[in-house]
Write a structure and sequence with these properties.
Blueprint (H helix, E strand, L loop, with lengths): L8 E3 L5 E4 L2 E4 L5 E4 L3 E4 L22
Antiparallel strand pairs: 1-2, 2-5, 3-4
Length: about 60
């Protein structure tokens, strides 16, 4: 961040990674995904249909 403040990142147990926005996410293939929301949920389980953004797909998994 250019203003010298640290960006807050929170890892949610069995959930997404929450990042203070706005964010620009660079994918392995070089593509970018941008979100201007004040808080952005980044998928950690890779089940999201909107990957890399979370769509709460982690909630629909069967836990054993």
């Amino acid at each position: 961040m250019s203003d010298g403040q640290a960006r807050r990142v929170r890892i949610v147990s069995k959930g997404p990674i929450m990042v203070e926005g706005p964010v620009c996410i660079e994918m392995p293939d070089g593509a970018t995904v941008e979100s201007d929301r004040f808080m952005v949920a980044i998928c950690a389980c890779r089940r999201s249909k909107t990957y890399p953004l979370c769509d709460t797909s982690h909630r629909r998994t069967v836990r054993r």
